[in-house]
């Protein structure tokens, strides 16, 4: 049942595109995609049909949800677009990331590799610069993201990152807790009053 009180419309998922990933991660991605559809949230993702990426899109689509994929031309062969959903083909990675950002009200990070790390570091950098206040939730099965969180904490302890960045995301271990964490965050922001947009990305 869609959550009528939520202001969230679209959620971007960053995740791995490898079919060699742990099967439990791929199954969780499918369940998370389903949960978005059931909550009335559109899934925005990298457009591929492989790995966790493809599983999330298939889960949302199978459950009747809306899905938007964004994929660069040069990755179409490697990441095999999921043609059953709306897919926009762009020229390069920069266009892909900006479109995914602009079309999304919140972000969910699933297990992934170097590409996922690039995306989330950029997103957190923009957050640190007060360029956005969009919710960010990590799916952290078996502590997958703990080393990343430790690295961010290390940069905070060394005085290189402001302590406030530690509050820029939430992490949940179970797939079924991802969407409730997003909706809970959204409800808290709504009750407190949404901050004014501080800047524009260029």
UniProtKB/TrEMBL annotation:
Gene3D superfamilies xref list: 3.40.50.450
Superkingdom per UniProt: Bacteria
Pfam families with a match to the protein in the record: Lysine_decarbox
Record-level GO cellular component terms: cytosol
Gene Ontology biological-process annotations: cytokinin biosynthetic process
EC number: 3.2.2.n1
Family: Belongs to the LOG family.
NCBIfam families: Rossman fold protein, TIGR00730 family
Protein name as annotated: Cytokinin riboside 5'-monophosphate phosphoribohydrolase
Organism: Caulobacter vibrioides OR37
């Amino acid at each position: 049942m869609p959550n009528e009180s939520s202001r969230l419309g679209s959620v971007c998922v960053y995740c791995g595109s490898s079919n060699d990933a742990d099967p439990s991660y791929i199954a969780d991605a499918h369940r998370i995609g389903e949960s978005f559809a059931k909550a009335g949230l559109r899934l925005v993702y990298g457009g591929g049909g492989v790995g966790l990426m493809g599983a999330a899109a298939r889960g949302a689509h199978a459950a009747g949800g809306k899905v938007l994929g964004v994929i660069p031309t040069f990755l179409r062969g490697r990441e095999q677009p999921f043609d059953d959903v709306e897919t926009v083909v762009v020229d390069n990675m920069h266009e892909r990331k900006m479109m995914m950002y602009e079309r999304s009200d919140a972000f969910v990070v699933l297990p992934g590799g170097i590409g996922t790390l690039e995306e989330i570091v950029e997103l957190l950098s923009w957050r640190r610069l007060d360029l956005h206040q969009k919710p960010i939730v990590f799916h952290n099965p078996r502590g997958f993201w703990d080393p990343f969180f430790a690295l961010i904490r290390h940069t905070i302890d060394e005085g290189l990152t402001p302590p406030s960045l530690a509050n820029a995301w939430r992490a949940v271990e179970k797939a079924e807790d991802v969407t409730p964490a997003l909706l809970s965050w959204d409800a808290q922001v709504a009750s407190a009053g949404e901050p004014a947009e501080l800047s524009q990305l260029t």
